[in-house]
Automatic annotation (TrEMBL):
GO terms for biological process: transmembrane transport. It comes from Paenibacillus agaridevorans. The lineage of its organism: Bacteria, Bacillati, Bacillota, Bacilli, Bacillales. It comes from the Bacteria. Signal peptide: none annotated. The keyword Membrane applies. GO terms for cellular component: plasma membrane. This is Sugar ABC transporter permease.
């Protein structure tokens, strides 16, 4: 007789109604605290500059204004072009990055790979040391000839060593060696095993790395500062940085302020910063719900052991 399945002997993971209510209340409070800063950023972006100067940040400002968004979208063609460039770089870079990191992480997760120790050491070494900005600039501009090209925005971010380690650990803890061995006995090649068996079973960690890669490529502006010279090739983040620097320069220029006092009084500063944040965070907020269910599982399973 099987006693393990009887209701009397089965252990159930239940909590009391009071504890359940307290946990739900705590999660509601934490969710509220996470949403409040985003709401405040949106409100400040719509607050008139005079209200910001006299009263500071408020959830219910006395005077609203669209001047920050009007200043930002005055040349809407440039904004839309920068959006398209950032989306293209993010999509291409994320797909290539996840695939390359998986191709790196899978062999070093296999116990029968003869060069596993060497390539793992190379991975850890790049986490501790790097060549610096000068050598990076020389390699990409002189050796590879990628100055003022979109490839210069994609290549530097393709391999993230820490993400490769997470993927390697996920492969070690999730993909059983017997599954690979049985596929090899059936005549499957290594590439067929990787693309038909390993990748479909690794969807949580792949989605997690895709989300991290999307955020990395979308928020990158430093590589644009180094390699991009043509204004028509500016991605969104770097364009927003240039706009913000131009506004701050105008506000700090005493001579210009004396010549155009009305222009300088209506020129947004803090509200423009918040408007830039609202414009830039839109795509990330849209894609995060699609990756959310895989995010925690991909990180926790991939971090069971180092």
């Amino acid at each position: 007789m099987n006693y393990m399945g009887s209701p009397a002997n089965r252990r159930e993971n239940t909590i009391s109604p009071v504890a359940n209510m307290l946990l739900n209340g705590m999660f509601l409070i934490l969710s509220f605290l996470c949403v409040i800063p985003v709401v405040l950023v949106i409100i400040v972006s719509l607050t008139h500059i005079d209200t910001l100067v006299t009263e500071g940040y408020q959830f219910i400002p006395d005077k609203l204004s669209w001047i920050a968004y009007e200043s930002l979208f005055k040349d809407y063609g440039t904004i839309f072009r920068a959006y398209a460039i950032s989306i293209g770089i993010t999509v291409v870079g994320t797909i290539a990055s996840v695939l390359l990191m998986a191709l790196y992480a899978y062999p070093i997760s296999r116990q029968d790979y003869p060069f596993r120790t060497f390539f793992t050491f190379v991975l850890f070494f790049t986490m501790l040391f790097n060549g610096g900005v000068v050598s990076k600039y020389i390699i990409f501009t002189q050796s590879l000839g990628l100055l003022d090209t979109y490839m210069a925005l994609v290549l530097p971010l393709l391999i993230v060593p820490f993400n490769v380690i997470i993927m390697r650990t996920f492969f070690q803890t999730t993909i059983h060696p017997a599954l690979i061995e049985s596929a090899r006995i059936d005549g499957a090649s290594e590439f067929r095993i990787f693309f038909r068996i390993v990748l479909p079973l690794s969807l949580p960690v792949m989605a997690t790395m895709a989300l991290l890669g999307t955020i990395l490529f979308w928020n990158d502006w430093f590589n644009s500062l180094l390699f991009i010279r043509t204004e028509d090739k500016y991605p969104l983040q770097y364009l927003m940085l240039r706009v913000l620097n131009d506004v701050q320069y105008l506000r700090n220029n005493v001579q210009l302020a004396a010549q155009n006092p009305e222009l300088m009084s209506n020129l947004p500063d803090e509200s423009l910063q918040m408007a830039l944040a609202v414009v830039c965070m839109g795509p990330i907020l849209l894609i995060y719900p699609f990756f959310q269910k895989y995010f925690v599982k991909g990180l926790t399973v991939g971090a069971v052991k180092g």
